[in-house]
Design a protein that fits this description.
two-stranded antiparallel sheet, 268 residues, alpha+beta, Rossmann fold, single chain, 10 helices, 2 domains
């Protein structure tokens, strides 16, 4: 029966070649022997071992997950390769196997720590006791201290470097004051309006001039005077529009030359 279990675990390990890279950095606590020990004590001792590991910053596989593999652990005994393959099934890098058995009138408790990624027994310990302790907490603490001595918990092996996020300062460019800009814009708008008005007067003057040939002789003097007025008005408005346009251009040039260099404002 033990051979069958070993073969099954070996097949599982061969089917998972990348497990050593993806294994969770935690410890599986499994009993491999309980001859003569009460099942209740074995469960309490396992829980005490898990508690001692947690107190020393070692993450563990919970009891419910481990119970499903206890039969396989019993078949492994202290065999490092078998226990490491069991660790693969439990997604745990380390396996802490323990056993409690009657030896004469006393009790022998033992434990091993196996690194499942290389199937190597890292440490082992044992104690002969006159009887099963009512509270296995102290025994579990001694066992864990003996097994993990010289080892660092996973959380302290490669502590993650603190992430430093540098927020670059926000540079806001304040627009420089432009005192001449409103005058330049207003003048340009006025020039455009005058140019439109001058164009309309020019069209009216042209139409009036086209009708002069049909004006009766007795009204010709008045019509000519009106034509002159229209021509003068159109010329005056267009001249003013040109002058305003030139003034707008000059104001825009002066505004561009007098504008100070914008100073960036840093907001932190």
């Amino acid at each position: 029966m033990k051979i069958a279990w070993l073969v099954g675990l070996l097949v599982f390990s061969l089917s998972s070649p990348s497990w050593a890279e993806d294994v969770a950095q935690r410890v599986a606590v499994v009993p491999y022997q309980g001859a003569g020990a009460e099942p209740d004590f074995t469960a309490r001792f396992a829980e005490a071992l898990r508690g001692a590991l947690i107190a020393r910053d070692w993450p563990v596989v919970d009891a419910a997950e481990t119970e499903r593999r206890q039969r396989a652990a019993a078949m492994c005994g202290e065999d490092a390769e078998c226990l490491s393959t069991l660790g693969q099934r439990l997604d745990a890098r380390w396996v802490l196997g323990f056993g409690v058995g009657r030896v004469g009138s006393g009790v022998m408790a033992s434990a091993v720590l196996v690194d499942g990624t290389v199937a190597v027994k890292l440490e082992s310990t044992s104690e002969q006791l006159p009887s099963l302790p009512a509270d296995p907490t102290a025994l579990a603490a001694r066992f864990v201290d003996a097994l993990v001595k010289g080892l660092r918990p996973p959380s302290k092996l490669n502590p993650p470097a603190p992430e430093v996020v540098e927020n670059p300062p926000l540079v806001v460019t304040q627009p420089p004051p432009r005192p001449l800009r409103p005058w330049a814009i207003g003048t340009a708008i006025g020039a455009g309006a005058l140019a439109i008005t001058g164009g309309i007067l020019a069209i009216v003057a042209r139409q009036h001039y086209a009708g002069l040939s049909s004006v009766p002789p007795d009204q010709r003097a008045a019509a000519d005077a009106r034509q002159s007025a229209l021509n003068a008005s159109a010329d005056a408005v267009m001249g003013t529009a040109i002058a305003a346009g030139v003034a707008a251009v000059v104001l825009f040039i002066l505004d561009a030359r007098s504008a100070p260099t914008p100073q960036p404002e840093v907001n932190r």
